[in-house]
Design brief:
Length: about 350
């Protein structure tokens, strides 16, 4: 049950949030680092058997398990998206390593999930095998049967984390609809060890529209430590502020991942002016008893957000039992929809060529 705050307390929180967004804190938390930027295998090669993954590729009302947005019945895309919007997803794949990769039925299902979105930010890649991800991208692009070949590429970060069981953050994106600025890719620098796993940052642009009108945005891919989630959410507020104030001056920053907290308990991050969780009031885990995952935007800036978002219910969409779905992950993917066109603060299509500036 949320406490009833006085007007004075509310004003103080608003002032602190504004001050925090404008400056102060760990100015050097976001610096360039060597994220691995690998190209996907060439199309035409075949999916390798599971035994060959080491080979190189040729408190208020209770939550309900429903989608959010303007319409509670919104469903995520069943077919590859081709309209004037893109769908960005976040998916904690729960310890994707050699053991999970050895289950062909799981990997085929994971690949099918990826193909439903234009960009997927993935957490918990846990393997010392450098060929696991390229082979998985190959499976995404070459599903076999009567499915058309796709052209997904990927960006994978370095192994991060405090324990010996480190993980990598991953972006998969449809190259026919999205391109990445590879010079923009970096891992957050965390010299004071405030974060369990340093987030991976990358800037993307939509394709298929005039470059001067294409939506350009930066994604910050993260997973918090569930033991110190409050402290990490406070640190993520600083990460978000610094990424927005970086040399790129990109105001469309989308913070995604596994927050280990619901939209009502984001602590310092949730107190920042304009911060808006696109996933609200729904479960995001497979057991349907917690909300962990989200895509968070600065609502006044990111007018490209269409208001449509939700949770991709793996059990219902594939007619699986809970146990079968847990083989894939203990999380469901979450997604949000955005216009392919860059928009100004009034929601009008912005032409950078005419304006001479991005906004």
């Amino acid at each position: 049950m949320q406490r009833i705050l006085s007007l004075g307390t509310l004003a103080l929180i608003g002032w602190l949030g504004y001050t925090f967004l404008q400056g102060g804190g760990l100015e050097h938390i976001a610096t360039q680092s060597g994220a691995s930027q690998q190209n996907s295998p060439q199309a035409g090669t075949q999916y390798r058997s599971p035994g060959n993954w080491n080979a190189p590729p040729t408190d208020s009302s209770p939550y309900q398990p429903a989608s959010t947005g303007n319409n509670g019945a919104i469903q995520p895309p069943g077919q590859p998206n081709s309209g004037p919007v893109i769908r960005i997803a976040s998916f904690n794949v729960q310890a994707l390593g050699n053991t999970k990769a050895g289950k062909q039925h799981v990997m085929v299902r994971l690949a099918d999930i990826i193909r439903k979105f234009d960009i997927v930010a993935i957490q918990e890649i846990r393997s010392s095998n450098d060929y696991l991800v390229p082979n998985f991208v190959q499976l995404v692009n070459n599903p076999g049967g009567n499915f058309p070949q796709r052209r997904y590429d990927h960006i994978i970060g370095p192994r991060v984390g405090r324990t010996t069981n480190q993980e990598q953050f991953l972006y998969l994106f449809d190259t026919e609809r999205i391109e990445v600025d590879r010079q923009s890719v970096y891992t957050i620098s965390d010299p004071d060890d405030l974060l369990f796993a340093e987030p991976l940052v990358a800037t993307f642009t939509t394709r298929g529209v005039h470059p001067d009108e294409a939506f350009t945005f930066t994604v910050v891919n993260n997973r918090t430590d569930p033991v110190k989630v409050n402290d990490e959410l406070d640190a993520l507020a600083e990460v978000y502020r610094v990424v927005r104030r970086s040399a790129r001056q990109e105001d469309d920053v989308i913070l995604v991942g596994d927050f280990h907290s619901d939209d009502r308990h984001l602590y310092r991050l949730g107190q920042m002016p304009g911060i808006f969780p696109t996933i609200a009031g729904v479960w995001t885990n497979t057991r349907q008893d917690n909300q962990y995952d989200n895509l968070i935007i600065h609502q006044p800036s990111t007018t490209e957000y269409t208001g449509r978002s939700g949770v991709f219910d793996v059990m219902r969409n594939y007619n699986l039992t809970e146990q079968q779905a847990l083989e894939i992950s203990d999380h469901f993917p979450v997604w949000a929809e955005f216009s392919v066109y860059e928009r100004d603060y009034q929601g009008r299509v912005a032409n950078r060529r005419l304006e001479g500036t991005r906004r």
